[in-house]
Amino acid sequence: MSLFAEVWEAVKAVGAGLGAVNKRISEPAVTEFYPYKKPEIPPVSVQFLALIQNEDGTDRCVACLQCERVCPSQVITIERKRNPEGKGFVLERFDLDFANCMHCANCVEACPVSAIVTVGAFEHAVYDINLLKADKAMLDHIGHEAKTWYSPKFGVEIRTPDGRIEKAPPEMQPGGLAELLAEGEGGEAS
Amino acid sequence: MRGPTTVEPVPGRTDELIINMGPQHPATHGVLKVVIGVEGERITRAVPHIGFLHRNHEKIEEARTYPQIITYTDRMDYVSGLQNELPFILAVEDLLGVEVPPRAKLIRTIFFELFRIASHLVWLGTGMLDLGAITPFLYTFRDREMILEITEKTAGARMLPNYFTFGGVRRDVHPDFFKDVAHFLDFFETRLPDYYALVLDSPVFQARAVGVGVLSRERAIARGASGPVIRASGVAYDVRKAEPYDAYPELEFEVPTRPEGDVFARFWVRFKEMEESVKIIRQALEKTPKTGPYKGKVPPRVKPKPGARYRAVEISRGHLGTYVVSDGSERPLRVKHRSPSFANLQLIPDLFVGARFADAIAILSSLDPVFGEVDR
């Protein structure tokens, strides 16, 4: 092939490429204008973990240590004591080190009472790594701030403006709602 | 045979220049360092150095319980994250004797193939970036974003979802899942011709790829290459056909092969694989019931009976196998991963020596290594 033929081939190739680009040039932009317009995150998305308290301010957590046991990176530390009135345990300490958390949500899957949940808040970059070492007060605070959250046991729940906790309507629920509604059968076998 | 571990200058030989490529070179797709001896434009010697991303996966996995390990397997080949969970899960399911519902198998297969497309799109974008084309990168990452959004809706994370589990999948798919996937496939099929026009059919690309980095069939087999690399050398080896797993026995698809073994053939095979994945997902979508069980009966404490099991799957880069040795306790005695990128990377001295220096970049991007998996 002569040099001119090669150059002509290259020019045609660039033309074909520009043709392919030109077809798409009028498509709407897909860029997210992030700090000004925040993206909507699906409720199951594992971004931040929180502890949920009941409407009357008591802990949902029953200190069964399931989440501590399943955590692959072992970032959850729980200390508990016997409940002075009645049976069971109460929390003394619940620490979660977000700096080492792998965001696998194994703890959320394991929780039998939906106390530890995933919430939609996702902006948790800080300058000091020690600020990511959350204690129970911080986890409770994230839980109080959250408007919606997800746990496999109860599905998506929402906090109404007057502070009540309700189950979200079916259109907000992710997959597996049929299993959630048939709670008499004990849910999934795991 | 153990090769040389470093490149020393030969005394008296002044026409050879020794160059470090990496570990921070943008074209090495991670932290690979290749010490290259060049004579003019021709590469005379090449020694790859790996291990910059070593995270001790296999030892950590000995100290974790079975459900915890699934989280770690994700982090090997982080570009096709979900696919890495499957060989470990299949091996443990065999040891446990768990029955997986057909619907769960189909859901797994759909996600598996979606991640194959996602991974090949990343390869196409970054590979063309190495060769000097920026446009495919912008388009492929936009398409991949749709797959990641589908995954996030159902599994809860984009790249490392930790979604498969023993006996099926963790939770049922999102109600919009089937609609979303069908929409993505329709959209992606309109996009593929553009990629052909921008990459494969372009004479500019062909001038850099045809006849470059030729890997013979014998050499590919001898070095244990797998995936698109070996199929581009004319060996129709695909784990999906050789040892079918999950729903693959029920699905019809072809294994694209090409005899040349050059960079162009490896690009071509990956393009055809994306088309085959679209076909597989379409069949699987038709077969999957909208509702039904997504998880089989698994004992609450995963304690497989003593024994060992090796299972392999065909991830985007090739044959990924996991060998699990169980001693009957909650933790495995040993977990060994056989990773395709690591085996494919052994081809660097074979392919680099004799090639031009600029072609080294093209050869490396056609091998498509991911260093999370090479170093583990």
List the helices and strands and how they pair.
The complex is a heterodimer of chains A (190) and B (376).
Chain A: H1 3-23, E1 48-51, H2 66-70, E2 76-82, E3 89-97, H3 106-110, E4 116-119, E5 133-134, H4 136-145, E6 148-151, E7 155-159, E8 165-167, H5 177-181
Antiparallel strand pairs in A: 1-4, 2-3, 3-5, 4-6, 6-7, 7-8
Chain B: E1 17-21, E2 33-39, E3 42-49, H1 57-62, H2 66-74, H3 85-96, H4 102-130, H5 135-155, E4 164-165, E5 168-169, H6 177-200, H7 203-209, H8 217-222, H9 228-231, H10 239-242, H11 263-287, E6 307-315, E7 318-326, E8 332-338, H12 340-345, H13 348-352, H14 357-367, H15 371-375
Antiparallel strand pairs in B: 1-2, 2-3, 4-5, 6-7, 7-8
Characterise the protein shown here.
The complex is a heterodimer of chains A (190) and B (376). Chain A is an alpha+beta fold and 190 residues long. Chain A has a single domain, classed as Alpha-Beta Plaits (2-Layer Sandwich), CATH 3.30.70.3270. Chain A is built from 5 helices and 8 strands, in the order αβαββαββαβββα. Chain A has helices spanning 3-23, 66-70, 106-110, 136-145, 177-181; strands spanning 48-51, 76-82, 89-97, 116-119, 133-134, 148-151, 155-159, 165-167. In chain A, the strands form 2 sheets. Chain A has a 5-stranded antiparallel sheet with strand order 1-4-6-7-8. Chain A has a 3-stranded antiparallel sheet with strand order 2-3-5. In chain A, strand 2 (76-82) and strand 3 (89-97) form a beta hairpin. Chain A starts with a helix and ends in a 9-residue tail after the last helix. With 376 residues, chain B is of the alpha+beta class. Chain B has one domain (57-340): Cytochrome-c3 Hydrogenase, chain B. Helices cover 46% and strands 13% of the residues of chain B. Chain B contains 15 helices and 8 strands. Chain B has a 3-stranded antiparallel sheet. In chain B, strands 6-7-8 form a 3-stranded antiparallel sheet. Chain B has a two-stranded antiparallel sheet with strand order 4-5. In chain B, helix 5 (135-155) runs antiparallel to helix 6, helix 6 packs antiparallel against helix 11 (263-287) and helix 11 runs parallel beside helix 14. The model of chain B has no long low-confidence stretch (mean pLDDT 86). Classes of the chains: A alpha+beta (190), B alpha+beta (376). At the A-B interface, helix 1 and helix 5 of A face helix 2, helix 5, helix 6 and helix 7 of B.
